[in-house]
Amino acid sequence: MANALPHLLWIRTFEACARHLSFARAAEELGLTPAAVGQHIKQLEGQLGFGLFERLPRGIRLTSIGRSYAPMVTSMLHDFSASTAALFGVQGAKSITLRCAAAFGGLRLPSILHEFRQAYPEISVQVYSSVWSEDLDDARVDLEILYGHGNWHDHDVIPLGEGISYPLCPPGTVFGANPAEALLDLARRAPIQILGMENLWGKLARQLGWHDLDVQARCTVDTSAIALELVAAGSGCAIIDAELCRLHLARGLVVRPPGIVLPHEQKHYLLMPVAMHTLKPEVILLRDWIKSQLSPAP
Fold first, then answer.
1. 3, 31, 188, 222: least surrounded by Cβ within 10 Å?
2. Pairing mode, if any, of strands 267-273 and 155-160?
3. Residue 177 burial by CB count (10 A; 0-12/13-18/19+): exposed, middle or buried?
4. How far apart (Å, rounded) are the C-alpha atoms in residues 153 and 274?
């Protein structure tokens, strides 16, 4: 291979072909003819000295080295686009559509978006919670934040945070010399359950050796936001994802027993559809901004 880098146009053509697995669809996206796309790929393969696609009777397929090269090229183009936008700004008014789990959208996202909007006032962000986005065409969604195990196979998935939760108690709770014992007393009297997260009390009981704990929820809610407000109001204790309770803890609206942390498999993830066109610069800026803000919980 020559020392000269491949032509950027060839690289863009390869990325589109790798994503669509079709010269024709890549040509349509790039505003080229299929013949021109085929010529770009041939020139790129010639310079690299390796075949990147297998030509099939119907369509194309990445070779093994093509499959290894594709994510590197995609990442390079995204980084180049984001760096250019960050340095020179985004030209004209731009809009991003973000779909978000309701609890994250209400508890964690506002501070992130506030600082992003201050840094990039020319970019508007439309946020839809999962409660209100059932009729939202997936093709209109640039980014999505969901809570789960990360097994969304039709998306590029970026983990956010660490996947830990804290048991939270009302302000003024005194833990004394044995925080686990004080928490156990409150857990017996007034546990709050969150639908879909009922197993967390059992996991915490096993972790702390509470063999006789039988959790009988005094209140069951469907979002962490409601559970947090119930704890803040003094109605009981709940186990909440660490990313969602940062603000409440910082403001003293709830307290947590020192030293007790519950790791688990679920966490928040940032999703981008695999089939999406090369990400727009403004989308990459927001993606990277969210990633930078979701630092490990204290």
1. 3
2. antiparallel
3. exposed
4. 9
Q: How far apart are CA 270 and CA 150, in angstroms?
A: 9
CA 223 to each of CA 132, 156, 287: distance values in angstroms, whole numbers, following the listed order: 15, 26, 24
What does the chain come to in residues? Answer: 298
* pLDDT (0 to 100) of residue 48: 94
144 and 278 in a common domain: yes
pLDDT value, residue 49: 93
- Is residue 123 in some structural domain? yes
Report the C-alpha gap between 52 and 84 in whole angstroms: 28
> What is the Cβ-side half-sphere exposure of residue 215, based on CA atoms within 13 angstroms?
25
pTM of the model: 0.72
CATH number at residue 121: 3.40.190.10
Q: Are 126 and 95 in contact (CB under 8 A)?
A: yes
pLDDT at position 137 is 56
Cβ–Cβ < 8 Å for 252, 171:
yes
For 217, list phi and psi in degrees, rounded to 5. -60, 130
Say yes or no: 98 and 234 in one domain: no
d(CA 176, CA 261): 17
8 Å CB contact between 231 and 254: yes
